[in-house]
Automatic annotation (TrEMBL), chain A:
This is Cobalamin-binding protein. Residues 3-97 form the B12-binding N-terminal domain. InterPro entries: Cbl-bd_cap, Cobalamin-bd, Cobalamin-bd_sf, Met_Synthase/Corrinoid, Meth_synthase_dom. Residues 96-227 form the B12-binding domain. PROSITE patterns: B12_BINDING, B12_BINDING_NTER.
UniProtKB/TrEMBL annotation, chain B:
InterPro entries: Methanogen_methyltrans, UROD/MetE-like_sf, Uroporphyrinogen_deCOase. GO terms for molecular function: uroporphyrinogen decarboxylase activity. It comes from the Archaea. It comes from Candidatus Terraquivivens tikiterensis. One of its GO terms (biological process) is porphyrin-containing compound biosynthetic process. Pfam families: URO-D. This is Uroporphyrinogen decarboxylase (URO-D) domain-containing protein. Signal peptide: none annotated. Residues 4-336 form the Uroporphyrinogen decarboxylase (URO-D) domain.
């Protein structure tokens, strides 16, 4: 196994981190491919380059040194690197959990959802991204098929938030509600809405969405629901 | 004073009998729809229902204006985007254009008989017959950035294009802008009293402020200059860093939401030595929908003392807002609106 102390490996880790911060998906994929070739394990690449880069981008965003387009591009570059380093076989042994994610029916706002997906990927989750304007039954159908652990729904338009309730209702109708954690986020939804519709969690932003998934995957059965991370405003 | 005189007096720089209580953004709620036995499809196909729901906030709650249409997809539909109409919410595009398709955008020669325009025209006519000269009719226009980011390319692709191919994005905005110019002229011809440029996708919350001048502001300025009607600018989110620029366009009023403090807007106006009416900055969720009587009263008094010329939400009404809450809001403005 290659040591991460190896100078050329260190150089590629820095290159990968910079590529993500620059939103350069091609450079990120190239650096990731070299690291894979040198024998680095996916978790090492995530912990030493992808996650720190995404964390740094989050901090720049909070300091108004980066803007949403930068976050979106960084997320895309991170996803590209992950596609390269994650093994095609035996992927499950690496991932923390599978998340089916999408922007709810009637809503096409996907920037926040994409950032959450990128952050979850960078933190070891396998993401099945359904895109936007996703009908309630589609979440359920794909979550069942993929054996997902978590269903994540995002919403920015208030008329669409009501469809989130339909997802949970459908899970109950099929007697599979306990099989998945359901989490929600986005500007239109708030902690009390999570409680009202019977979701398992709500997070204010992408960083907290990762913490929420970690908490649910580690001790979800013991936690009182919904788990609320952050304040809505 | 009648609501029309009250609102127009503010635009003229005069002093009305009290501060108007308005919303220049969408005024649709579930209770309004139920009251008129309408859904989201009806209000885009039936001029009568469109007019009824657009005037519901005035008719049932006493707001000082009427606003239509109810979402921001009218422009994109005119540009050829196909929509899926849902009974329970605004229409969504069946698909977005790819970056390479931007040159395929075609602005139709005559807009009046395209898309939802005939319905809007009839609804304005209907409203004019009932409320002309008594209640101002506000028509919402989605400027180029919201049209492109919201419905043509989609939010994420627009953000990526902004970074990768800003020239191409600018070209796309320029092309759609020809439509916006014709739209404001049509609305003026059809009898609208106010135009609101509602540009959520132009918000500095989602856009690098470095792009604001070129991709957002230049179109606001041109649209303001194009029409003789009072033209209100409503950019969502925290707009402190672009206030000076918005003020420089000389809009008839500036609407801002709760993320921008009233005192910041007043300070920017004072520094620019300009007197432009301001409307804000109640949160449709916290200060109206969820607020108890005490909180709503506190916030109404706060914004009035802060110096707003219109008490208004900074964005669309929360769709679940009960009629009673809006009646309560209007009563508070009637009570405290004369304190200055």
């Amino acid at each position: 196994m290659t040591q991460t102390g190896d100078a050329s490996v260190r150089e590629q880790l820095v290159r990968l981190k910079e590529a993500i911060l620059n939103g350069d998906a091609k450079a990120a994929a190239e650096a990731a491919a070299i690291l894979k070739e040198k024998g680095l394990q996916p978790l090492e690449v995530v912990n030493q380059a992808i996650k720190p880069a995404m964390d740094e981008m989050g901090k720049r965003y909070e300091r108004l040194e980066a803007f949403l387009p930068d976050l979106v591009l960084a997320g895309e570059a991170a996803q590209e690197a992950l596609r390269v380093i994650l093994p095609k076989e035996g992927e499950e042994s690496f991932i923390k959990g599978k998340v089916v994610i999408g922007t709810i029916y009637g809503d096409i706002h996907d920037i926040g959802k994409n950032i959450v997906a990128a952050m979850l990927s960078a933190n070891g989750y396998k993401i099945i991204d359904l895109g936007n304007d996703v009908p309630p039954e589609r979440y359920v159908e794909v979550a069942k098929k993929e054996g997902a652990h978590i269903i994540g729904m995002s919403c920015l338009l208030t008329p669409s938030m009501y469809y989130m309730r339909d997802v949970i209702r459908k899970l109950k109708e099929e007697n599979i509600r306990d099989r998945f954690y359901v989490i929600i986020g986005g500007a239109a939804v708030y902690p009390d809405w999570a409680k009202e519709i019977g979701a398992d969690g709500w997070a204010k932003d992408a960083e907290r969405a990762v913490q929420l998934c970690d908490a649910l995957m580690e001790k979800g059965k013991e936690l009182p629901k919904p788990v609320i991370l952050g304040e809505w405003r | 004073m009648l609501p029309y005189e009250r609102v127009m007096e503010v635009f003229r720089g005069g002093t009305p009998d009290r501060i108007p209580c308005v919303n220049f953004a969408s005024v649709i709620t579930k209770e309004f729809l139920a009251y008129y036995n309408a859904n989201w499809v009806d209000i885009y196909q039936d001029p009568e229902k469109m007019a009824s729901v657009a005037s519901a906030a005035h008719r049932l709650c006493g707001l000082d204006n009427i606003s239509l249409p109810f979402d921001q997809s009218v422009e994109a539909e005119l540009l050829g985007i196909k929509f899926d109409y849902h009974p329970d919410g605004p229409p969504t595009p069946l698909s977005f254009l790819s970056e390479e398709q931007y040159f395929e955008i075609v602005v139709p020669h005559s807009l009046a008989d395209k898309g939802r325009m005939p319905v809007i025209q009839k609804a304005i006519k209907r409203l004019k017959e009932e409320f002309g000269g008594r209640v101002p009719i506000n028509v919402i226009v989605s400027p180029p950035m919201t049209t492109v980011a919201g419905y043509l390319l989609g939010p994420s692709a627009t953000n990526l294009m902004m970074r990768r191919f800003p020239g191409a994005l600018k070209g796309m905005l320029e092309e759609t802008f020809r439509l916006h110019l014709e739209l404001v002229n049509l609305y003026e011809e059809w009898g609208a009293d106010i135009i609101t440029l509602h540009d959520p996708k132009g918000s500095p919350d989602v856009l690098n402020p470095g792009f604001f001048d070129s991709l957002v502001l230049s179109y606001h300025k041109s649209l303001i200059e194009e029409t003789k009607l009072p033209t209100v600018v409503n950019v969502c989110g925290n707009i402190i860093h672009v206030l000076e620029k918005i003020i420089s366009c000389n809009p008839s009023a500036i609407v801002f939401d709760y993320k921008t403090p009233v005192k910041s807007v007043m300070k920017a106006l004072s520094e620019a030595n300009k007197k432009i009416p301001v409307a804000g900055n109640l949160s449709p969720f916290w200060d109206i929908y969820l607020a108890d009587d005490e909180r709503m009263e506190e916030r109404v008094v706060e914004v009035i003392k802060g110096g707003v010329d219109f008490v208004s939400p900074g964005c669309d009404l929360w769709v679940a807002t009960p009629i009673e809450k809006l009646r309560g809001l209007v009563s508070l403005v009637e009570k405290y609106g004369k304190i200055r």
